[in-house]
């Protein structure tokens, strides 16, 4: 079962990448982004793609330019996540056959992103918009638009976000922090998957 959770591995190193990715997949999380402000992110992405590219959707976060999109594609990444809605980044991602998840906060940003071909929207920062903000935004979005809440969404409030029409989530520090063990990552991932499944039920 593939869950609508994107693991955000900010700060991960190439040495940690493959074992961390394996732990997440084993726990039931198979969508993984390495933010480009991590150490040697393209090496981490390439290593994870080589090991698990057939079973997981792997790519980059904090993607801010067309050049970065090209670099992620060259590393084998298939997922582009951004904190903002840059229409050039979205269009380039889609032209290369990659999923594009730009960050939006307002209807103007949301419609610009969708117009450029975004696969889905990343409501960011989610803790500022809140479930109420998502409800208001959803009222004007085209039917079927995928919206993931990122920042302020987690196991303690998955249910509240689902009720507000969230389709999925991006989870960062609750899953991974630099320096934690693979065992701890496994435990955190398992707990988040349980909370997600319970909220879905």
Largest β sheet strand count, sense and barrel closure: 9 strands, parallel
Number of strands: 9
CATH H-level homologous superfamily name? Aldolase class I
Shape: globular
Arithmetic mean of pLDDT: 97
Kindly report the spatial arrangement of strands forming the biggest sheet: 5-4-3-2-1-9-8-7-6
Distance between the termini: 14 Å
Rg from Cα: 16 Å
CATH topology: TIM Barrel
CATH architecture title = Alpha-Beta Barrel
* Number of continuous helical runs: 8
Our count of domains comes out at 1
Q: What proportion of the residues form beta strands (DSSP E)?
A: 15-25%
Which CATH top level class fits? Alpha Beta
Subunit structure: Homotrimer.
Keywords: Carbohydrate metabolism, Lyase
Pathway: Carbohydrate acid metabolism
InterPro entries: Aldlse_KDPG_KHG, Aldolase_TIM
Describe this structure in words.
This protein is of the alpha/beta class. The protein has a single domain, classed as TIM Barrel (Alpha-Beta Barrel). 45% of the residues lie in helices and 16% in strands. The chain has 8 helices and 9 strands. The chain has a 9-stranded parallel beta sheet with strand order 5-4-3-2-1-9-8-7-6. Strand 7, helix 6 and strand 8 form a beta-alpha-beta unit. Helix 1 packs across helix 2 and helix 1 runs parallel beside helix 8. The longest helix is centred in the last third of the chain and has 19 residues. It starts with a strand and ends with a helix. 45% of the residues are buried. Belongs to the KHG/KDPG aldolase family. Pathway: Carbohydrate acid metabolism. InterPro entries: Aldlse_KDPG_KHG, Aldolase_TIM. Homotrimer. GO terms for molecular function: lyase activity.
């Amino acid at each position: 079962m593939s869950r609508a959770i994107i693991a955000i591995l900010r700060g991960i190193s190439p040495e940690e990448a493959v074992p961390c990715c394996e732990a997440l997949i084993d726990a039931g999380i198979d969508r993984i982004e390495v933010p480009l402000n991590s150490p040697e992110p393209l090496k981490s992405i390439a290593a994870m793609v080589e090991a698990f590219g057939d079973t997981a959707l792997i790519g980059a976060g904090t993607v801010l330019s067309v050049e970065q999109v090209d670099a992620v594609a060259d590393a084998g990444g298939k997922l582009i996540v951004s904190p903002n809605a840059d229409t050039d980044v979205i269009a380039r991602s889609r032209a290369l056959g990659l999923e594009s998840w730009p960050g939006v906060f307002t209807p103007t940003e949301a419609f610009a992103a969708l117009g450029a071909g975004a696969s889905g929207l990343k409501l960011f920062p989610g803790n500022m918009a809140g479930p109420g903000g998502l409800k208001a935004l959803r009222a004007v979005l085209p039917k079927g638009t995928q919206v993931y809440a990122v920042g302020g969404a987690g196991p303690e409030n998955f249910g509240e976000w689902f009720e507000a029409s969230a389709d999925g989530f991006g989870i960062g520090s609750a899953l991974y922090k630099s320096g934690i063990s693979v065992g701890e990552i496994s435990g955190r991932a398992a707990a988040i998957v349980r909370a997600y499944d319970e909220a879905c039920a």
